[in-house]
Amino acid sequence: VHPNVSQGCQGGCATCSDYNGCLSCKPRLFFVLERIGMKQIGVCLSSCPSGYYGTRYPDINKCAKCKADCDTCFTRNFCTKCKSGFYLYSGKCLEKCPDGLEANNHTMECTSIVHCETSEWSPWSPCMKKGKTCGFKRGNEVRVKEIIQHPSARGNPCPATTESRKCIVQRKRCQKEGKGKKNREEKRKKSNKDESKETRQESKGRAARRQNREQRENNNKTQPKKRKAPNKEEDLAPVDTAH
After folding, report:
1. What is the pLDDT of residues 53-82, one digit of tens each?
2. Is residue 16 part of a domain?
3. 229 inside domain
4. Range of 84's domain?
5. Same structural domain for residues 45 and 87?
6. Per DSSP, what are the bridge partners of residue 118?
7. How many domains does the chain have?
């Protein structure tokens, strides 16, 4: 350590030197040595860098190196993330996972082997042939099952989820398109008939209202008009009796 120790340091250092950098840190900061070329420089950080873990002591907080195969660790003997080519298992970094476990290349961890799980078979479908359920005697019926749990890389694969078998039905004729057309025509005629019925009812209603209006008009015409009051001057005119 260079004897020139300074108290006015930068970057979180409590004491430092021009040659070795930080010699001690301010409270709550971690002291770590960084190699630059052939020498090491002390720095003070709020948290330890990758490959180091922090330890706190009454006089100083330090960052210590993880094991060589650890990328990050909680303590020297407990890794939380492994370097490339290793798989994490119970705080250790392994090149090969133990029996009963498999390597997960996505998380780089040793995980339990997961086997496929499926539901029970569904009921058999109706007997069909070429998408129809009529017009044939021999056809096929199908049943299916759903995958509940997909397997992991080393897990038991899923079985077939569809099953088909031959079936025999009592032969029946398919409904002809013409018959269907006839039914549609009958429905259309019935609809037109209902509309015509409603139209006739509306016409009868209008005719009845028109007849009532004409009856009122005729009644007004046949009623006698009120007699006009006589002119008083004509009634008082003298009668000529000369002849």
Report:
1. 998 888 889 998 899 999 999 988 899 999
2. yes
3. no
4. 75-112
5. no
6. 147
7. 3
